[in-house]
Amino acid sequence: MIVAEDSVLLREGLVRLLQEAGFTVAGQAGTAEEALSRAARCRPDVALMDIRMPPTHTDEGVRAALALRESLPDTGVLLLSQYVETGNAVRVMAREPRGFGYLLKNRVADIGELTDAVKRVGAGETVVDPEVVARLMGRPRVAGGPDVLTPREREVLALMAEGRSNEAISERLYISAKTTETHVRNVFTKLGLEPCPEDHRRVLAVLAHLQAS
């Protein structure tokens, strides 16, 4: 994998944590352009990339992620952000959520959560930071939005948006598989979303709905 982060201290810290967790870090980068160059040479399984990078510190990381996915579609991308940014990052994920993740930097302190996100993105899953999901769900809703859901259905929706399978949702909420299936079906019905057997497409549907509302 490669790590792209303009803060030298944070980048070196990330590299050390990932290496200690058993990952092979094949390259580091301080700019989006450098990240693309190193990715082209290393062809990593996962690219860990800051959203805001030089020179403008706005959306260079997001644009680089798009370019990387176009040139290396099998490389998973895990975006890191200091703050909840629900615009471009979510739109990028909505284009092709498979093997894409969005994590807030404060999660880096939890090595278990960080390594889990890297592994899931590398395996082609979608990872969305729970705080990002909460922010999206907390926006003023239009008719037919998540406000029509019960509290339990909102919990299920949030876990779906994190890329969790029905089995994982059942374990997290301590409910039966049948009950989870019922809640998922109700969520899709109430939001007017067609269910799909592929988890990453469920995330796509949920994120697209939340962002557009």
UniProtKB/TrEMBL annotation:
PROSITE patterns per record: HTH_LUXR_2, RESPONSE_REGULATORY
Q: Which residues are annotated with the PTM 4-aspartylphosphate? A: D50
Domain of life (superkingdom): Bacteria
All copies of the HTH luxR-type domain together span: 142-212
Q: What's this protein's name?
A: Response regulator transcription factor
**SMART domains xrefs:** HTH_LUXR, REC
Q: Where is the Response regulatory domain?
A: 1-120
* Annotated keywords: DNA-binding, Phosphoprotein, Transcription, Transcription regulation
Biological source species? Streptomyces lycii
Recorded hits in Gene3D superfamilies, A to Z, give: 3.40.50.2300
